[in-house]
Amino acid sequence: MEIIRTAFAAIITALLYTLLRQIKPEIASLILIGGVSVIVIMLAESLTEFSGDAAGMLSLAGIEKENITALLKALGICISAQFAANICYDNSCSSLAAAVELAGKVGALSVAMPMLKAVANLAIGLLNV
Description:
The protein is an all-alpha fold. It has one domain (about 1-129). About 90% of the residues lie in helices and about 0% in strands. It contains four helices and no strands. Helix 3 (about 65-90) packs antiparallel against helix 4. The mean pLDDT is about 85.
């Protein structure tokens, strides 16, 4: 049922955006941002359930909690940056969208850096043996 509510909110947002884009383009962008925000808020509960389930499964596999947290943060950064970039593309701001995508990549990399260091140390340890 969650997908039906999400699809309904997306269709209403798209229709309002299309109608207002002709009359008031500056308000149409705000409608688009508002619609995306509503959909993300609607999905927040599902995302928290997913993150808890994923963390439980990964901890059973012996992966440290810090690594799970870093992965989920990086995923959140990527999703948020993609949403923002898509809104920028829809409003003909491709250079701004590219900057948002780059910021998302840098943010995800910075969150994942401790994991990359741990992998590098493990590889160095294996090569020295």
